[in-house]
Amino acid sequence: MSATHANPRTGPALWVSGDWNAYFGFGTNILVNLLVLTGLLRFVLKMPDEIVFGRILPAAGLMLFLSTIYYAYLAFQLAQRTGRSDVCALPSGISVPHMFVVVFVIMLPIASTTGDPIKGWEAGLTWVFVQSFVLMIGGFIAPAIRRITPRAALLGTLAGVSIAFIALRPALEMYMTPLLGVVCFSVIMVSWFGGVRWFRGIPAGLVAIALGCLIAWGSALLGKPIGGMSLAALGASFANFGFSVPLPAFGHVFAGFEFLGVILVTAIPFGIYDLVEAMDNVESAAVGGDSFPTTRVLTADGVVSLVGCLMGNPFINAVYIGHPGWKAMGGRIGYSAATGVTALVLCWFGVISVMTSLIPVVAIAPILLYIGMLIGAQAFQETPRSHAPAIILAFMPHLAAWGKLQIDNALGAAGTNAAAVGLDKLGQTGVLYQGLEVLGGGAILGGLILGAIAVCVIERELQKAAAFAAAGAALTFFGFMHGEHIGVGQSLDVALSYLGFAGVLVGCAKFAVTEPAAAHPEPHETAMPSGV
Predict the structure, then answer these.
(1) What are the C-alpha distances in Å from 101 to residues 142, 348, 351?
(2) What is the pLDDT of residue 1?
(3) Residue 522 — φ and ψ, nearest 5°?
(4) Which of the residues 89, 92, 125, 283 could staple to 253 if both were Cys, CB 3.0 to 4.6 A apart?
């Protein structure tokens, strides 16, 4: 993409036509996450509606507003400083992996044990409180990590997350309800990959959602519902319509400290996960031409998450995967700020309750699949061809984590677990559960380390590869990789294996004769679909 320049007299444009595409695409992404977390709070945690719609969602809306406005401001500053008009704001919002972790690992067990969902909510607030400070402190060391880590490792582990946890679920949902999902996906494909424009420039994301609503509600009115829509559910949803502003929840935050021992087990590792994920996403934006300051990004995530939790929101903020996708749609500065304002309105006026009964979620799934496709492709398109094996290696922990999650969920639905069934019995059927558990533990860091080792080996930088292997040993020893808990002496055999790996690399660097690395050209600029 060639850089274009802003008018020096007027400064960067706050809104361009492409922002409509990114607004509807990114806005629907945020909407899906709000719909999902509302369902988790109401139906999994059995949280009272007055807490969900009166306390948690208003606080979440405030956090989303602050985050998206800030990243729009960073984009404005970058555009003003460089004189470019093609700068795209970083997307941000509630972290989806954390959403499920805090619900199922922290809030649900505590709510079940105490018999009080409010206790679960308080524990979730404390969890975010701890993570916020991990992010703010880590923001000052993240730039150094980003400088020494190969791009293929950063983008490779990001692509692994994208394929396993962003693209795959929407793809499965589409084919579970193909008349909705696949037909809506056709609109996304021909528009954002094929360059098809709709009447009067109507955004493709809006066309896809409108078509999904038409199919879902048409089938419901004909008595053969597709997508779970019903007039009865829609009417009942208006009961939660109203106006609520966030209120300070300091007492609830500090009440959750009674569960601090349980909280620290996951809060610190996931805080580190956030650091690496944010670095990956900043790197992804830099590849797309927009270089944002890593420290300011990470500390902003920590600050807005802290504000959100102090007002009652138990979900952490994160920079999202997907900057190249929104930029390719034509998104610039305004889409981010407009999405934040929309989130504020949806959450403060109880509109989410109505939206859950109005829009079929499957109609939104193709947009998430599109983003996953772009991020997965970027890892290969924006790195040297010779680094492709390293990217594949960086995928492996994420695929293992996804496989383990599917097995755990399936066994949980049957009222059992892997230990009760027996790892030997699972192994006899070809299910290597222990391997999935070890390889998939701390997948973000695992993918990063494995990818970095592979890139350094490919480039014949064996001493540097050994340093990454030694870092892998340390991270594993303390439970940040290849384990379920932090502590001392975790996954000791895996930690020793990384030390052995480092020893082999050092020995080869000193004594072995190696062929020089093959010369490779710099990756060419990737052709992205034009904004539609």
Answers:
(1) 23, 25, 26
(2) 40
(3) -65, 145
(4) 125
Beta bridge partners of residue 317, listed in sequence order: 94
Non-local CB neighbours of 373 within 8 Å, separated by 6+ positions: 167
Closest among 228, 227, 242, 208 to 346, alpha carbons compared: 242
Collapsing DSSP to helix, strand or coil, 5 comes out as: strand
| pLDDT tens readout for residues 299-324 | 898 999 999 999 999 999 988 877 88
CA nearest neighbour of 470 among 501, 439, 512: 501
Distance separating alpha carbons of residues 288 and 285, to the nearest angstrom: 5
| Structural contact between residues 232 and 360, judged by C-beta atoms closer than 8 angstroms | no
Q: What string of DSSP letters covers 386-421?
A: GGHHHHHHHHHHHHHHHHHHHHHHHHHHTT--HHHH
DSSP per residue, 231-249? HHHHHHHGGG-S-------
- Joined together, the tokens standing for residue 389 give 């094996």
CB count within 10 Å of CB 450 equals 26
CA–CA separation, 345 vs 354, rounded Å? 13
The helix, strand and coil proportions of the chain, stated in percent and rounded to the nearest 5, come to 70, 0, 25
Query: Taking the chain, what is the end-to-end CA distance rounded to the nearest angstrom?
Result: 16
Nearest to 277, CA basis, from 383, 135, 402, 395: 135
Alpha helices in 87-224 (DSSP H): 96-101, 108-114, 117-138, 142-148, 151-161, 168-176, 178-188, 204-221
Residue-level length of the chain: 532
Amino acid, single-letter form, for residue 334? G
The whole-angstrom separation of Cα 354 and Cα 100 is 23
pLDDT at 118 over 80: yes
What percentage of residues in the chain have a pLDDT greater than 70?
92
d(CA 18, CA 20): 5
Instruction: Please give the pLDDT value at position 265.
Output: 61
